[in-house]
Structure formats: structure tokens, C-alpha cells
Specification:
The structure is a single chain. By secondary structure, the chain is α/β, with parallel strands linked by helices. The chain has 2 domains: 2-170, HUPs (Rossmann fold, 3-Layer(aba) Sandwich); 183-273, Pantoate-beta-alanine ligase, C-terminal domain (Pantoate--beta-alanine Ligase, Chain: A,domain 2), CATH 3.30.1300.10. Helices cover 37% and strands 19% of the residues. It contains 9 helices and 9 strands. It has helices at residues 7-15, 32-44, 72-81, 92-95, 114-117, 121-136, 148-160, 190-211, 217-227, and strands at 2-4, 21-26, 47-52, 86-88, 140-144, 166-170, 233-241, 255-262, 267-273. The strands form 2 sheets. A 6-stranded parallel β-sheet has the order 1-4-3-2-5-6, with helices on both faces. A 3-stranded antiparallel β-sheet has the order 7-8-9, with helices on one face. It binds adenosine monophosphate (AMP).
Length: 274
């Protein structure tokens, strides 16, 4: 595995590569969720590039940019063991210059749910993903369904800008109790982790209701909110179509049920595709 920190080094390292390139962009502190994306990229491509970059432009004022876990040595080992070909770990000045040309999230889909609670987050996310997709020359890029709205917006960017890359959605990886893995879970103590299970429990409850014939979104959301009482603060519970339009009734095969809530320090998100 080659570790590169500058754009120039990345371009050089890529010159030696042949065949398809699978790319996995991350912010590091890698866990099994990231690893599942990397393994899928490894299975489906000749070459695998992983990036680890804590992107400042997608953090809002007052968010956890400085506290965000950084574990370069462990991340390097994980990538090495997973058979990654190039690990790209750029500094901020490699990725940005002052007074940049910016790409903006779409006015509706980019400013509901996560976009409403974290205005500007998706602009920064799309900006860095555009850069990274261009830099990696990826044939395929792998994104987790865990960040469902992010995934939808990246797919839209690729579609709207005719970018020559296939975006591959990957399943959410959870711990044995159901908690969706996240680098931010490291902020929680044992008691908070126990309470954090109410997010996945609320989604399981919703799934059960749908399976027993209850399709009304308001009724499902009300039950979910009851289950979510162990969270410190629920930011939203939403039932949307796969392209993020609010649904009054669940449509099998075209629904995402999402939840965002604070438990202790972290703000957690989770969802289920129905
Ligand atoms: P992050 O490092 O949080 O920016 O995540 C990098 C990529 O890993 C994104 O595409 C995430 O959606 C994905 N990811 C994060 N957590 C999980 C998880 N528990 N299961 C599947 N994918 C995940």
C-alpha cells in the first residue's frame, strides 16, 4: 500500500494503476462500517483508493471539527490489512485554496432534514466529494446508506454534472445490539450507548408496524417518538421517498425512515430502507 499526502503524490501513484478503480472516501477513525465499504470496493475493482480527510467545510461553526477522532496509525493498519492500494491522507492546504469556486446543495433536497438542521453541511460535503471523485479517477465510489441524504445528494451531483463514476450504495453496519456504527459513537459512555439503542429500536418498531399493515406516516412517527424518549433530544423523525419527498403513506420499495437525535455528546443519525 502506498500512502500519499499531496495531490501530486496521488497523481504519481495513480500512474502505475491498471484497470478499474474503487474509491472509498472517509473522515477516518475507521470502523467495520468503513471496512465493509473498503471490502466491497476490493471485491469489485482492480485497484482500491481510500481517502482519510476530516473535511473542515462540512462542519458548521460550533460543531466537533477539533474533537473529531483522528487515528491515523490505526486507520493505516486497517487499510493495509484490507488490501488497499493507495491511502490518500491530504492536509487541508492540499485540498483547498482561499476564495474557492463552490458547489451548492440543491435548494429543496439539500435543505430539509440534515440540511435544515445543519445548513451549509451538504455544500461542504459535495465540495469535497467532487474534489475527491475527480482526484481519484474512480470507476466506482462507495457510500454508506447510513448517511442516506448524503448518498442521495452525491448521486444527484454525479447525475447533474455528468460525472463519469458509478456511486455504489452500501448497507448499514451495526453492532450486535443494533447500534449503527459511527466514528462519533466514541464520544459516548456505556450508559449513553445503551440509551442510543433507542434509535435503532424505533426503526425496528416502524418496520414491524409496516409489516403488520400500518402504512400511515403520522401514526408510525408517533410510535417512533415514544420509543425515542431515552434520547436527550430528538431532532427529527421522517418518512420520505427514496428521492427525499415527504410521504404520507409508506410505499414499499420506495421509503426511507430516518431519525436524528442527541444522546450525550454526539448527534446520532440512523435510518432504514423499506
Ligand atoms: P465518514 O467517515 O463518517 O464520513 O463515513 C465515510 C463513509 O462510510 C460514508 O459513505 C458513510 O456513509 C459510511 N459509513 C459510516 N458508518 C457506516 C456504517 N455504520 N455502515 C455503513 N457505512 C457507513
Amino acid at each position: 500500500m502506498v500512502i500519499v499526502r499531496t495531490v501530486e503524490e496521488l497523481q504519481k501513484a495513480k500512474e502505475g494503476l491498471e484497470g478499474s478503480i474503487g474509491f472509498v472516501p472517509t473522515m477516518g477513525a475507521l470502523h467495520q462500517g468503513h471496512l465493509s465499504l473498503i471490502q466491497r470496493a476490493r471485491d469489485e475493482n482492480d485497484q482500491v483508493i481510500v481517502s482519510v480527510f476530516v473535511n473542515p467545510t462540512q462542519f458548521l461553526e460550533g460543531e466537533d471539527l477539533d474533537a473529531y477522532p483522528r487515528r491515523e496509525a490505526a486507520d493505516t493498519q486497517i487499510c493495509e490489512r484490507a488490501g488497499v492500494d493507495i491511502l490518500f491522507m491530504p492536509t487541508i492546504d492540499q485540498m483547498y485554496e482561499p476564495d474557492e469556486l463552490c458547489i451548492g446543495a440543491p435548494a429543496i433536497r439539500g435543505y430539509i432534514l440534515e440540511g435544515e438542521k445543519r445548513p451549509g453541511h451538504f455544500d461542504g460535503m459535495l465540495q469535497v466529494v467532487m474534489k475527491l471523485l475527480n482526484l481519484s479517477s474512480a470507476t466506482r465510489a462507495y457510500f454508506g446508506k447510513k448517511d442516506a441524504q448524503q448518498l442521495a445528494l452525491v448521486m444527484q451531483m454525479v447525475r447533474n454534472y455528468f460525472m463519469p463514476v458509478e456511486i455504489v450504495p452500501c448497507e448499514i453496519i451495526r453492532d450486535e445490539k443494533g447500534l449503527a456504527l459511527s466514528s462519533r459513537n466514541a464520544y459516548m459512555n456505556a450508559e449513553e450507548k445503551r440509551r442510543a439503542l433507542c434509535l435503532s429500536r424505533s426503526l425496528k418498531r416502524a418496520t414491524k408496524m409496516v409489516m403488520s399493515g400500518e402504512f400511515d406516516a403520522e401514526t408510525i412517527k408517533k410510535e417512533m417518538n415514544d420509543v425515542l424518549q431515552e434520547a436527550d433530544q430528538v431532532e427529527y423523525v421522517a418518512i420520505v421517498s427514496r428521492d427525499f419527498k415527504q410521504l404520507e403513506r409508506v410505499e414499499i420499495g420506495n421509503t426511507i425512515i430516518l431519525v436524528a437525535a442527541w444522546v450525550g455528546k454526539p448527534r446520532l443519525i440512523d435510518n432504514i430502507w423499506i
